[in-house]
UniProtKB/TrEMBL annotation:
Alphabetical list of InterPro entries matching this protein: Diguanylate_Cyclase (IPR050469), GGDEF_dom (IPR000160), MASE1 (IPR007895), Nucleotide_cyclase (IPR029787), Rev_trsase/Diguanyl_cyclase (IPR043128)
Alphabetized SMART domains for the sequence: GGDEF
Protein's cellular compartments: Cell membrane
Gene3D superfamilies reported in the protein's UniProt record: 3.30.70.270
Protein name, UniProt field: Diguanylate cyclase (GGDEF)-like protein
Membrane topology listed for this record: Multi-pass membrane protein
Record domain GGDEF: where: 345-475
Sorted UniProt keywords: Cell membrane, Membrane, Transmembrane, Transmembrane helix
Amino acid sequence: MRRTTLPATPEPDMRSPAARAATDVAMLSAAVFVAAIIGIHSRPPGLLASVWVANAVALSVFVRWPRTFTAPAAVAALLTLVTADLVSGTDVYATIAFNVANIVGILGGTLVIRRRHPEPMTFAGSADFARMCIGIVVAALLSTTVATLSSSRLGPHAPAVEALSWFGSELTSYLLIVPVLLSFRASTPRRRSRPASLRGLITGETAPIALTVLLMLAGLIVQGPLLLALPLPALLWCATRIPIFGTALLTALWSAWTLLFLGRGELQTGGLLGADGQDGASAVLSVALVALGPLLVAAVSLDRMAVQNKLREALEYDSLTGVLSRAAFLRRSQQRLDTLITDSRPVALLMLDLDHFKSINDTLGHAVGDIALVRSAACIRGALPDDAIAGRMGGEEFAILLPHADQEDAASIADSIRRDHERLHVLSSRTATVSIGLAWSSYAPQSVSPLLVSADHALYDAKRRGRNTVVAVSLD
């Protein structure tokens, strides 16, 4: 029944640093090449791509996996972009000029995001969102500047570059991809689970996702500027209800869908676009702004959840020992008993009290007493099965609920905790032993109170018998 927690030990990477670097470069090149081909195929004849995600893919890799941000990787990314354009039949001079603009933007944005933050970055709050936005704006500005200057020297054989159009397309493409890649499997604050009910279904994750999809489909029918703003309320709802990766993914899907149809001239937008149906700068920037809103709300929601989780943890857990507080222990124990009643399963409860704790405080000081409490809580947690519930009832007194434990198992756990405390040295000359009262029942009572009262009486009996002992009683 003893629980042992072993640290996860990843298998060592036996490859040499050069082999790992070569693998990173190869994987980066493959991802950028696929993204570039997708962007090229979204390109209207003779024009720039409607959705160019290759730059965003490269930037995301560089900031989330900093070990890939090396000179060989940057060169490989540039060569991959050039290769993708050349195999697709793009003019050589335009290919080189525009992809130099792309790599300048990628590198500039990466440096801005990683400035003073060399650690891997994920999208886990408003601070990360601010860094990400500043970085992608810088990336878009640098790319736009280089592309515009290069375009003026390429002559009529290359697509014309309008600064606002290039900037809007770059910004939107970054907002499509970077939040998705940075939030995928990121460690973010968790939302509290909601009970299964009609209200939970309506206010949970299903309804906002369904509404977003419905409004995206409605965009096939709606004409005019309303097309760009139609899904915004649903996306904002998603930002407050679903994980940030889901919000980023839905926002990216809608933005890509809109840009694709706008670029092909297959949607009428009431004059937002030119007569030839090609996407204009104002439409592209509108998509970027729509994408920005849900992401900002999702980032702020993460901050709010982090604060709520910290407050909840402060209320439910004892700040010194890390076990549950008295109120949280009583509440969770009662909830656990409610599930055991229907199954007619046995249950045990231990009450523990450190022996001569007042003497430790009086002779060695309260700081040493705190050390004794922390080490005692560690001993207790180390001896418990996974389904046990442990809490600090006050002072030097702890309680443990053992669901499904028969009398023999409960006595074995209690004696194990007692023996562990015999070996527990607070200082070199002092130990902190423990007295334990054990109350056991072959069936779960309606309330946790009978178990607490019986275990408490057994605890005081253990102290009267000389301490450092376990006294067990049965409620049957």
